[in-house]
Design goal:
By secondary structure, the protein is mainly alpha-helical. The protein has a single domain, classed as ABC transporter type 1, transmembrane domain (ABC transporter transmembrane region fold). Helices cover about 80% and strands about 5% of the residues. It has a two-stranded antiparallel ribbon with strand order 1-4. It has a two-stranded antiparallel ribbon with strand order 2-3. Strand 2 and strand 3 form a beta hairpin. Helix 2 packs antiparallel against helix 4. The protein is elongated, with a radius of gyration of 28 Å. About 0% of the residues have low confidence.
């Protein structure tokens, strides 16, 4: 039977709903700030209206406080939902592991089971937290920033149309190459944990047969393999961030150039150009954060498949009781244990 991990989030549906709702309040505050700042620059500073500067500044402070409160609430609700989700999932996986026979345990290996109960569940927990908070935040900043930017000047849409496809294509290419390595990294981590577990539990045997050098070489081989796999992934992701930053900076330069022409033609104000730069930064930064989220999602997807393998394995040892009779007529009972 195929196990759906989403069922572990259902008991915390209220927190899962409150998290994105709170995040909406934070994002709205972030989107209002540049607009208010442009008003201060254009009507307050250039218009020499101190009362407007004070009023708008106080309004910005209130928006900042409200957005900060919503951000804190979103972090709290998201933490409760994701941590509770991982706790319940870890309990069920541990119960299933305790029901496995020696043959089934050897099939998974002890090191692999340890990895699944720790690193894999943590990866899924981070994915849930990202989906509830960062996905909503980045999506709203992305679409909201585009809308707010176009309200300032439609010509800025040309910059977005040029920058976005380039960023998206680069993301797709690099993430497509990096995704297969996450499963490889998990398997290499299994190997490292298995070697460590075997040497810790069998330390006396290793010393008795003078196998220290052999076991050290086993660990070194497993450790180097893990390092090489991680290095490949990190190298690919390290290439992505500078490329996205280059596109971001070139787009900001384009906004300054187009905005400068508009200001000279008195079709725009200086504050509006400042606001456009901020909105463009929010839009393209949102795309960059989405690339990190997709990276987390790819890692969590591999971890989820590994956890389903455990949860979908029928345990040999189940809860119940067993009674054994000896030759003298006595009975020995084992509670809460049965064998199928």
């Amino acid at each position: 039977m195929k196990v759906k991990l989403s069922k572990y989030l259902k008991p915390y549906a209220l927190f899962a709903v409150l998290t994105p709702l709170s995040m909406v309040g934070e994002v709205l505050g972030d989107l209002l700030q540049p607009k208010l700042m442009s008003k201060i620059v254009d009507d307050g500073v250039l218009g020499q209206d101190m009362d407007l500067i004070i009023r708008t500044g106080l309004l910005m402070l209130l928006v900042l406080i409200g957005g900060g409160a919503c951000g804190i609430a979103a972090s709290a609700f998201g933490g409760i939902a994701s941590q509770s989700f991982s706790r319940d999932l870890r309990v069920d996986v541990f119960k299933r592991v305790m029901g496995l026979s020696f043959e089934q345990t050897d099939k998974f290996t002890t090191g692999s089971l340890v990895t699944r109960l720790t690193a894999d569940i943590t990866a899924i927990q981070q994915m849930v937290d990202f989906m509830l908070r960062m996905l909503v935040r980045d999506s709203l900043l992305f679409f909201g920033g585009i809308i707010m930017m176009l309200t300032l000047n439609v010509r800025f849409g040309i910059i977005i149309l040029c920058a976005l496809p380039i960023e998206i294509i680069m993301m797709i290419i690099i993430l497509k190459k990096a995704n297969p390595y996450y499963s490889i990294v998990a398997k290499r981590l299994d190997s490292v944990n298995s070697v460590v577990q075997e040497n810790v539990t069998g330390a006396r045997v290793v010393k008795a047969y003078v196998r220290e050098d052999t076991e050290e070489k086993r660990f070194d081989d497993a450790n180097i393999s893990l390092m090489e796999s991680n290095l490949r992934v990190q190298t690919l992701m390290a290439i992505l961030q500078p490329l996205l930053m280059i596109i971001l900076n070139l787009s900001v330069i384009a906004v300054i150039v187009i905005g400068g022409w508009q200001v000279q033609a008195q079709a725009m104000k200086v504050g509006e150009v400042m606001a456009a730069i901020t909105y463009l930064t929010q839009v393209l930064h949102g795309v960059m954060m989405m690339s990190m989220m997709f990276q987390t999602l790819a890692k969590a997807s591999a971890s989820a498949n590994r956890l389903r393998e455990v949860l979908e394995t029928d345990p040999v040892i189940k809860s119940g009781s067993v009674s054994l009779s000896d030759k003298t007529g006595g009975t020995v009972s084992f509670k809460n244990v049965s064998f199928s």
